[in-house]
Specification:
Blueprint: H1 2-36, E1 40-49, E2 54-65, E3 69-71, H2 77-83, H3 86-106, E4 113-117, H4 120-125, H5 128-137, E5 145-150, H6 151-155, H7 158-170, E6 174-180, H8 187-192, E7 197-200, H9 202-205, H10 214-227, E8 231-235, H11 240-248, E9 253-255, H12 265-275
Parallel strand pairs: 2-4, 4-5, 5-6, 6-7, 7-8, 8-9
Antiparallel strand pairs: 1-2, 1-9, 2-3
The structure holds ligand C2E and magnesium ion (3 copies).
Domain EAL: 24-276
GO molecular function: catalytic activity
Keywords: Membrane, Transmembrane, Transmembrane helix
């Protein structure tokens, strides 16, 4: 059985390889060029506390493709990871997010945090030096930069992850676990990690307020966060019913289309000014 499964995997891999190898190589070359020609931009999605006050933004990578227009990461992030390009691209993202935070602060919105997603390979290559460099370059106060890691990144090598996370935290940078609940976290390790926030995955938020099973999962994650002294933030909040449920159950923060879509930096500034600081 295992042997059969192994053989199926190889077949699937070869088929995918045959079909997409040329195309994928093309994409890698285009992505490398995109980095050189500054075709990447960051979109920002606001995050809010329970009273509806903006408390942060998540930086989300976009590719201004010369022919295909603005592309979301789903179109290219997989290839960035496979090819290793995610390392230089991720470094660009980190610096760009820090630069944008400095611009926000100069405009009077320095209370906001800015979060950055970090891929497995990028984290494993070591991000502490890059983090320290941007903290210095843009004089980021403690608590304004946040790194989002997934459970699998952390749990695949928890000992190494803890060491790296402690260095990052030493520079005043917060750490959130993204898509929480979809991976496999060791609760024993979770307790030992220098974390600040658990981001409840969108998949569990979807059916909130309808009495579905996912409510049990969300309330458990909120309670887990509370008992570990962490904040809980729900992502993908789209309806009033979901928001009411999250407020009732004591979720600290929310992010989702109900409140704000990811937007360019100029739109973000305009939104913040409209809200009146
Ligand atoms: P994520 O970190 O979980 O980011 C949240 C995703 O959910 C974003 O998709 C966002 O646009 C989307 N979203 C936010 N609110 C809602 C909502 O209410 N409803 C729905 N349906 N979706 C919502 P996006 O921008 O396409 O990014 C997808 C993923 O790509 C991210 O998931 C993250 O894993 C990855 N990613 C984005 N930017 C970066 C980056 O700079 N570096 C790395 N390594 N990964 C990134
Ligand atoms: Mg994220
Ligand atoms: Mg997420
Ligand atoms: Mg997600």
């Amino acid at each position: 059985q295992a042997k059969q499964r192994g053989r199926n995997c190889i077949v699937a891999y070869e088929q995918a390889f045959d079909r997409g190898a040329g195309e994928r190589l093309q994409l890698v070359l285009q992505l490398r060029e995109a980095l050189r020609q500054e075709q990447f931009v960051l979109a920002f999605q606001l995050q809010f506390d329970r009273s509806g006050t903006p408390v942060g933004v998540e930086s989300l990578l976009r590719w201004k493709h010369p022919e295909r227009g603005l592309l979301a990461p789903g179109h290219f992030i997989g290839v960035c990871e496979e090819s290793g390009l995610i390392v230089p691209i991720g470094r660009w993202v980190l610096r760009e997010a820090a630069r944008r935070w400095r611009m926000l602060a100069d405009a009077g919105f320095g209370d906001l945090r800015v979060a950055v997603n970090v891929s497995a390979m990028q984290f494993q290559q070591g991000i502490a030096d890059d983090v320290a460099a941007v903290v210095r370059e843009f004089e980021l106060p403690r608590g304004v930069l946040e790194i989002e890691l997934t459970e699998s990144v952390v749990m695949s090598n928890p000992e190494a992850a803890v060491a790296s996370m402690q260095r990052i935290r030493g520079d005043g940078v917060c750490i959130a676990i993204d898509d929480f609940g979809t991976g496999y976290s060791s609760l024993a390790y979770l307790k030992r990690l220098p974390l600040h926030r658990l981001k409840i995955d969108r998949a569990f938020v979807r059916d909130l307020g309808t009495g579905a099973d996912d409510e049990t999962i969300c309330s458990a994650i909120i309670r887990l966060a509370q008992s570990l002294g962490l904040k809980a933030i729900a992502e993908g909040v789209e309806t009033e019913a979901q928001w009411r449920w999250l407020q009732d159950w004591g979720c600290d923060e929310v992010q989702g289309f109900l409140f704000a879509r990811p937007m360019g930096f100029d739109d973000l500034l305009r939104q913040l000014r409209l809200r009146g600081g």
